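hey team, just a heads up i'm posting the complex here instead of the shared drive bc the drive is being weird again. everything in one block, sequence lines first with there labels, then the predicted structure for the whole assembly after. its two chains so it's a bit long, scroll down
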Amino acid sequence: MTTFLGMPAGGGNLTGEPFPKAAREALGNAQLRRNLAKATGTIRAKRANVVGELPDWAQLRAAGAAIKDEVLANLDEHLVRFEEALTSRGTHVHWARDAGEANRIVADLVRATGTREVIKVKSMATVEIGLNEALAGIGVHAVETDLAELIVQLGKDKSSHILVPAIHRNRSEIRDVFRREMPGVDPDLTDDPRALAEAARRHLRHKFMTVDVAISGANFGVAETGSLVVVESEGNGRMCLTLPRTLISVVGIEKLVPRWQDLEVFLQLLPRSSTGERMNPYTSVWTGPTEGQTSHVVLVDNGRTATLADPDGRAALRCIRCSACLNSCPVYERTGGHAYGSTYPGPIGAVLSPQLTGVDRNPTLPFASSLCGVCYDVCPVAIDIPAMLVHLRGRVASAKGTTPESTAMRALAWAMADARRWRRLVRLGRFGRLASRHVPLPGWSTARDLPQPPKETFRDWWESSR
Amino acid sequence: MVRVALFVTCLVDGLFPDVGKATVRLLERLGHEVVVPPAQTCCGQMHINTGYPGQALPVIRNHVEAFEGADVIVAPSGSCAGSVRHQHADVARAHGDAKLAEAAADTAKRTYELSEFLVDVLGVTDVGAYFPHRVTYHPTCHSLRVLKVADRPLRLLRAVEGIDLVELPAAETCCGFGGTFALKNSDTSTAMLGDKMSAVLSTKAGVLTAGDSSCLMHIGGGLSRLRSGVRPLHLAQILEHTR
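-- predicted structure starts here --
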């Protein structure tokens, strides 16, 4: 790939502990394992049902991939068209190279309003750049209004899933968080989902009526019209989009679709892949500010241009954040999202996060997969995640240069490139293993027995019997 | 009669020779000629998937040359056949070797996983096997999602006389092997293995079968550690078995 000087690397919440270490800690949490298995199992079945009922799913998927590729191939032109369309409708457009710049822009806009509190529509981009923390730094409290984001925020927790950030919590844990952290909550609150939702509703309704600045992301931006789209289930997003007098939308530069009619494809792909619904309850589209409202759009790069520069990695930017790959992944189901250390967990996170930050800052994520391939099968925009993981592993190995692993692999490849050398090595390995059959293999022998080496190799048998 | 060039795979050659022998005996019993091109070694998938595609290049070249001129290449592995069919040409192309890419694409066209060869090329599902045991089948990820063998192995197994074939719960979930994943992410791999073993044990089968010795080495290694008594057997070993 070609990387040009000045291509900003992604900052913000995109890195964490090495995956194997973080995963080990998560795997020790039996409650987490149960919560995840139940939640992902339920949503997998729902998705399979509503995807299976569409006879043209394969065509929709191909169309989704093609439209996104069209955007990515000419992203510069689409972005300029988008900016023109937004500006002509009276929206102010800002460009941010990275997380720090995006946070500064939003902080300045918020400061200018004089507010001490903002309400937020669920948004991955603002979690990615660490906006809440940045706003706290200037004394502004950001209130998450998506129920799951609210649970995470009140619990001083971290999101572990793109769609359902509190997937790692069950309802009794949620009740405990509400009782502990929600001002004025009924101290006898039960874990009945209806009661929990009502408590959240009371808490949030007050915020919707009193806070005058909102921050959103966007699921899609339409380049030709300058429209922004938020797809949600609860309606809390729409409250934020319509009530406050200032609306600031933080949007990754890859979120565009060229034409209005392209939404027809994505509004089918997204809810079916995401929540397993034929249609989501609330789709909000706004083209320019509503009357009496000031609206800003902050377009964020944060490593996306660098991702675009890699022909074998750029398809990760097709992602519409549906989470189907998370819900289907056998690794995610067992470790949960925190183990990935990034705002974007699961298979898509394992290919997106290292590209946004540069592989040197996320060297373990491309290896956090058994390459089983189920993520590719369920992806609504056909991102070949397994092939991309393999490609990124190559970038990680190249960046590391000579290591004991690379030296051993080189020696092995040298032997494998010639049958005589290889057969000698196999014989040697077999005798070595026979001599040391009770020596455990680190990483393997903790849970699995090694096969006993056979008396003769297949090739020896073949030659002696023919 | 088909002249079959057996790509035995490095794992079967070195650790599971009985799988290779079973494949030879099965194909010969069905009236076909088996040859074992002597220059073969390994497909190089471990190098490619661990981040060393450049190192895999000479291994790929060796494989392509070893099977030059073979009409039909059969491997008792979905994963190795998958690498030959879906990785070799791409790796060669990415490293600027267009000639090798072309030759690898040609090798890919002639390469089959065992169940594909039996069902699609030979057109048989009943291979005349007899295996009076309770068996459950794990569809390996690469056979299922890379090669898309679908229910071919199951069709072959259902035709085996005397077999008591029981469905494996959550069969299509990965067992957690994943090549070097089993070592680099040992804890996660082991957690996935635990769930797979629970599923296998719930079937009360005495034999676990699959089309890949690598996954069987992983699940079988775990089942052996548990002293479960469940035997891992490659699909070829069941299909080879007669009265």
